[in-house]
Amino acid sequence: MDPYSVLGVPRNASQEEVKKAFKKLAMKHHPDRGGDETKFKEINEAYERITSPEKFRQQGPHFDSDFDFTPGGFSFRRGGNMEDIFSEFFDFHNRQGQRRSATVQVTLWITLEDVALGGERPVSLQSNTGINTVKISIPRGVVDNTQVRYQGIGPDGQDVIIVFRVRPHTVFDRLRAVDLARNVDVDFWTLILGGVVPVKTLSGKQLSLRIPPKTKPGITMKMAGQGIQNSRQQGDLYVKINAVLPEDINEDIVELLSRNRSQ
Questions:
Q1: Is residue 144 within 8 Å of 164, Cβ to Cβ?
Q2: Do 39 and 29 form a contact (C-beta atoms < 8 A)?
Q3: What are the tens digits of pLDDT across the range 102-157?
């Protein structure tokens, strides 16, 4: 057995680091909390091998007769103060349990771009010692008013619940969880004759949308795969065509159109 690998600490770890790693794993795998008793005993043995190496040099491959195991698998030395050992372990366990049972809830406003890209965001939390900053990861595709729990990242080990609120966008509307919609102005010459118009996506990409000849104003065209992506699917972008007049219209064209309309 490599006790350092079992506890997940480097060989130059301090006694405090070893103790902290032991307590964390012991609580996770304690049989009274539904853990595996064999794994729990292995953790205890690893801790003993690091903190009391002389015991294992003497005993070889056999268990030290001076040690017993409680029904839950916690080892103690005969003649030692077992009450102190259990008091330290379970007091720590109870303190952690009390901390984890408390939660901190924070409302975080994000943009539609944050929804599309995800990424990390610092969040400030108030505690008895002042303001603490933690980093949380924004789930890609998160829906407005969604609550996400981040376990144990609070200043006193509390769970932090982030309520994500998504700000309205000036250009894009969110149709469903992953689909987007926007308007695009197209001059009536392009609507009549057909052509290509530029469309900017939420991610900032500049794409080209082909307009068929004789396109009617107000129709909606789909650009597949240009919406929001979450863990399960990729959305589409729906473009509504708005008809606009060109800024400069040749008078000869106006006269020609007038003649054709009157015939």
A1: yes
A2: yes
A3: 788 999 999 999 999 999 999 998 877 788 899 999 999 999 999 999 998 888 88
Radius of gyration of the chain (CA): 33
Q: State residue 165 phi and psi, 5-degree precision.
A: -115, 130
- Burial track 78-111 (b if 16+ CB lie within 10 A, e otherwise): eeeeeeeeeeebeebbeeeeeeeeeebebeeebe
**Residue 211 β-bridge partners:** 195
Rounded distance between C-alpha atoms, residue 4 and residue 6, angstroms: 5
Overall size of the chain counted in residues:
263
Q: Which of 184, 173, 170, 181 is nearest to 243 (CA)?
A: 184
Closest CA to 198 of 182, 214, 213: 182
pTM: 0.56
Reduced to 3 states (helix: H, G, I; strand: E, B; else coil), residue 226 is: coil
